[in-house]
Amino acid sequence: MREKVLINDVGPRDGLQNQQRVLRVEQRVQIIRGLLKAGVRSVEAGAFVSPKAVPAMAHTDQVLAGIAGDSGVDRQVLIPNAKGYELARDAGANTVVLVICATETMNQRNVRMSVEDSLAQAQGIFQAAQADGIRAVGCIAVAWQCPFEGATDPGKVMDLAGRLFEFGADDVNIADTIGAANPMAVRSLMGALAREYGAQRLACHFHDTRALALGNIYAALDADVRKFDSAIGGIGGCPFAPGATGNAASEDVVMLLEQMGFDTGIDLIALMEVGSMVGSMLDVPTGGRADTWRRLQVEKDAPLT
Amino acid sequence: MREKVLINDVGPRDGLQNQQRVLRVEQRVQIIRGLLKAGVRSVEAGAFVSPKAVPAMAHTDQVLAGIAGDSGVDRQVLIPNAKGYELARDAGANTVVLVICATETMNQRNVRMSVEDSLAQAQGIFQAAQADGIRAVGCIAVAWQCPFEGATDPGKVMDLAGRLFEFGADDVNIADTIGAANPMAVRSLMGALAREYGAQRLACHFHDTRALALGNIYAALDADVRKFDSAIGGIGGCPFAPGATGNAASEDVVMLLEQMGFDTGIDLIALMEVGSMVGSMLDVPTGGRADTWRRLQVEKDAPLT
């Protein structure tokens, strides 16, 4: 029995929110259906944020409607506040993700609130979610490095995670929003969080800005984390965080994990086809280096494991 | 006091040997001088191989002559055999690097010899090097994965390393020639080698084919390895190993190490300028993601550490 690792594909949200081209609802549904068909069991399907601020996330309710019915699939959505929570609940999301930044400056830029106000808001939302039977994830952004304040105090992240759990978060997702974490810092912070709160309730979210996403995932695995965000094609980046580039590419993350003997449940070839489709839809080169593996595989030269 | 890590820049050899454009001796010297000026203390300056088979490595003696005189610099050269050794010695190399492949098929393709014959040859060369006061490095290629035979038996690598040390190798360099190793396999093999032979006599050489070079370096660091090959600009690849793409980019490796608190002695900005120069000389896009860091740095948004 290989050990399971859960991939949550955030491409339909984090990947699409900041592209030149805004995809239609049908295209967003087509991407998610492709991901599910490849074996992905958890997707961040969209966000209930202002369609004026983030036009690419408009009509997330219709996207959720388009993928309703698949049982055993976690349909997550990002919500910025209590109103977003209500929209998500009414649209049938299984899981809501609420982001709190570990630094004041970034939190102000992201949601125009102090961290303390964001926490108070989280408490109300998590209580409502518990009552409604909806899973709640608290995501701590800029957990290692903030584009405005520099290195983030690990103690601050520890405290924030504790309060999010206390307020009813089912999971806490630790995010390297700008891709500036390094494996030693990841091993250290995730190890401390895992000892304090248990690794099974933790997830990680890495960007590949400095080519370190896979190294950071390995370091988090070493701290017993078994849940990771990644985005099909490595698309993405935060519109409010300077320097944030693509997410860890799902294709590369699956390749890494399967090669190391973990079971993602995902068919890599099928996943790569979804990646190509996304690249065509957006008319951008999609990242990910797993295609090198595919080429080798076709040549029967270098098996995956 | 930060812990030191030694970077051996193999760009002038592994990086240039398989390019469309063959550089002139003056250009090769200019690259190496740039590296040394940036603080690099060890370079693989060239190879004494057949100029017919690898025209880019012709006149390595002139390259060595062009960089003679810098004290405290390790001027390594690759040699395929005893004749290569004599040429290297006469040309003033400090260190000779002899490659043995961990699999029979790859060794045959590389040097048209059995592994056993390569070992016998290594013994003679290492003895001569010892007598001549020249440092000898035994490099074990395809140490994790062979493009022809698949996964490499770690026991085979352990045995080969033991015999190379026994024959007088000062260091043994463990090479992931096609960039197919993963961090767990690296941690495991380098940990076993370090326990058996001591980490201070080991080095690693990674290619970035699957975007795992930095993750693999972190895993090797975790096994106490403190010597790494990398190539300026991430250029390179083995002409005889299908699927081998660029080396770990020196810029990225320095960024990773410095960010994690190690001391490479290398000025990253100066190194990146050498990388741009190499890209212009070869008319190829050079790899490496450290330029993202530079951009962030200039914006004063995300400090390196």
UniProtKB/TrEMBL annotation, chains A, B:
Q: Which domain of life is it from?
A: Bacteria
- Which UniProt keywords are given for this protein, alphabetically ordered? Lyase, Metal-binding
Q: Tell me any Pfam family this protein matches.
A: HMGL-like
Please report which protein family the annotation says this sequence is part of: Belongs to the HMG-CoA lyase family.
What this protein is called in its record is Hydroxymethylglutaryl-CoA lyase
Q: Which PANTHER family match?
A: HYDROXYMETHYLGLUTARYL-COA LYASE (PTHR42738)
| Molecular function GO terms recorded | hydroxymethylglutaryl-CoA lyase activity; metal ion binding
Any GO BP annotation: L-leucine catabolic process
List, alphabetically, the InterPro entries matched: Aldolase_TIM, HMGL, PYR_CT
Q: Where is each Pyruvate carboxyltransferase domain found? A: 5-272
